[in-house]
Amino acid sequence: MVDARKIKENLERVNARVAEAAERGGRLPDQVRLVAVCKYVDAEITKSVVNSGALDIGENRPQQLWQKAEQIKVPSVNWHLIGQLQTNKVKRTLPLITLLHSLDRLKLARVIEQQASQIGVQVDALVQVNVSGDESKSGFQCSEVEYALEQIMECQHIKVKGLMAMAGLDSDVPTTRREFESMRRLQDRLQAKYGDQITLSELSMGMSRDYEMAIEEGATIVRVGSEIFRE
Ligand SMILES: *Cc1c(COP(=O)(O)O)cnc(C)c1O
């Protein structure tokens, strides 16, 4: 298993690459946030990620997020849910997370709105877009995003901060870049249309294999996992 020293070294390398890619994309390093995806490891190892200075931790399964948030009681940690949220897990998840990256269906928005109003919280969320059109991927199709956003904007306890996407599993490098670029254009278009009501400043895209390219194309948040745990 990868040890704490190696994790720290990997994290430093990823952070340096994030900063360089930000510069290439004409932005400052602190304009791109790294979410360390810890879904592959237990609470113990997640704690060494936190101790190495990563304060944005991503999990793709709600239960795993609950457990770790319970075991790692560091108030400065921001928990990000990046995977699908089942409606029966909304209530327990909402108070724990800083940002929901995977608002991927209107049914979920309705349940979040109902639960959030009950417990009196505001939920920051990203609308997930299935930019590659892969059937296995969740998220709104590009053509549905506008309608979805209008519906979600009606939910007073959900604050949409931007968009989230993953490149297609089978996309080659040029296709991946085009997918990221089209997300950026979608963000710009929606911002122009709805900017008087919401601010879509965040674009969560890019994982271990493509985060540098995602940043060059406009990502403000990257979700990196395996690269941090490489031996
Ligand atoms: C696992 C996961 C990541 C991180 O993937 P790596 O290839 O391990 O960096 C990013 N986003 C989502 C939604 C994931 O499920």
Structural description of this entry:
The protein has 231 residues and is α/β, with parallel strands linked by helices. The protein has a single domain, classed as Alanine racemase (TIM Barrel, Alpha-Beta Barrel), CATH 3.20.20.10. Helix content is 41%, strand content 17%. The protein is built from eight helices and eight strands, in the order αβαβαβαβαβαβαβαβ. The relative contact order is 0.15. The mean pLDDT is 96. Bound molecules: pyridoxal-5'-phosphate. Pyridoxal-5'-phosphate (PLP) binds next to β8.
Task: Lay out the secondary structure.
Layout: H1 4-24, E1 33-37, H2 43-51, E2 56-59, H3 62-71, E3 78-81, H4 90-93, E4 99-103, H5 106-119, E5 123-129, H6 145-153, E6 158-165, H7 173-194, E7 202-204, H8 211-216, E8 221-224
Parallel strand pairs: 1-2, 1-8, 2-3, 3-4, 4-5, 5-6, 6-7
What is shown here, in short?
By secondary structure, the protein is α/β, with parallel strands linked by helices.
Features:
231 residues; 8 helices; binds pyridoxal-5'-phosphate; 41% helix; globular; alpha/beta; TIM Barrel
Q: Could you tell me the radius of gyration in angstroms?
A: 17 Å
Strand content: 15-25%
Sketch the major β-sheet. Answer: 8 strands, parallel
CATH superfamily, called what? Alanine racemase
CATH topology: TIM Barrel
CATH class: Alpha Beta
Q: Structural class per helix/strand content?
A: alpha/beta
Oligomer: single chain
Distance between the termini: 8 Å
